[in-house]
Design brief:
- α1 packs parallel to α2 and α4 (105-127) runs parallel beside α5 (153-173).
- The chain has helices at 17-28, 41-53, 68-82, 105-127, 153-173, 200-205, 215-226; strands spanning 8-11, 32-37, 58-62, 87-90, 135-139, 179-185, 237-240.
- It is built from 7 helices and 7 strands.
- The protein has one domain: Rossmann fold (3-Layer(aba) Sandwich), CATH 3.40.50.
- The radius of gyration is 17 Å and the shape is globular.
- The protein is an alpha/beta fold.
- A 7-stranded parallel sheet has the order 3-2-1-4-5-6-7, sandwiched between helices.
Length: 246
């Protein structure tokens, strides 16, 4: 399928996990893709190679999503290098969890900076380059709708904030032909949350399907929202969680 032929996308936190799967899927659908990463240049380079292997242009930009200036510069660089920007995927996030008493100001500030402020900042930067048909897709979490375990309050709060941002931007940008949506993944098999990790069996048991998702399954929904096929979906929160919140 080439639903994104001729489009340019930027994926924050695209060097691994769901972000890497999204970047590759968008490229397979025809898009040129930039990705941001914070530390692991080697992993980012691997994703770039995989994108180029399917015949698309790729760019890796080092940027801490908690730094508004660096994140804005990364979005602007994508548009400058590729000559356009059509799709933004707000994927970068931090997962700082623990008892309420153990989460100090540093953890709160970092979580809000990366999980809440960064998607807003990146969206603000991206829409300066987008025309009609632009797409903004943010990656949330099933924890925003069902905080099933203790210690998740800070993380769940940060992901819940994306619901309000998505609805507000959908209203604001709809007249410009730009859609804004939110995907809530359920438990997904990544380096930081492996399907064979400690306690993973109990987590999988909370889903209706009884298993973790593959990152590619999340990426498939993002690709649909980013494509022309998703043109009448905006302001929506879509659970791709195997029935975790059912």
């Amino acid at each position: 399928m080439n639903r994104l032929e001729g489009k340019v996308a930027v994926v924050t936190g695209g060097s691994r996990g769901i972000g890497a799967a999204v970047a590759l899927r968008l490229a397979e659908e025809g898009a040129d893709v930039a990705l941001t990463y914070e530390n692991n240049a080697d992993r980012a380079a691997e994703v770039v190679e995989r994108i180029e292997a399917v015949g698309r242009r790729a760019l890796a930009v080092r940027a801490d999503s908690g730094d508004p200036e660096a994140l804005t510069a990364a979005v602007d660089e994508t548009a400058a290098v590729f000559g356009a920007l059509d799709v933004l995927v707000n994927n970068a996030a931090v997962f700082l969890v623990g008892p309420l008493e153990d989460l100090g100001a540093a953890e709160v500030e970092r979580t809000l900076a990366v999980n809440v402020r960064a998607p807003f900042v990146a969206s603000r930067a991206a829409v300066r380059h987008m025309g009609e048909g632009g797409r903004i897709v943010s990656i949330g979490s099933n924890m925003a709708e069902r905080a099933a375990f203790p210690g998740m309050a800070l993380y769940a709060m940060s992901k819940t904030a994306l619901v309000g941002m998505t609805k507000g931007l959908a209203r604001e940008l709809g007249p410009r032909g730009i859609t804004v949506n939110l995907v809530h993944p359920g438990p997904t098999d990544t380096d930081t949350n492996p399907a064979d990790g400690t306690g993973a069996g109990a987590v999988a048991g909370l889903t209706a399907l009884g298993r973790y998702a593959e990152p590619a399954e999340i990426a498939a929904t993002v690709a649909h929202l980013a494509s022309y096929d998703g043109r009448y979906i905006t302001g929506a929160t879509i659970n791709v969680d195997g029935g975790f919140t059912a």
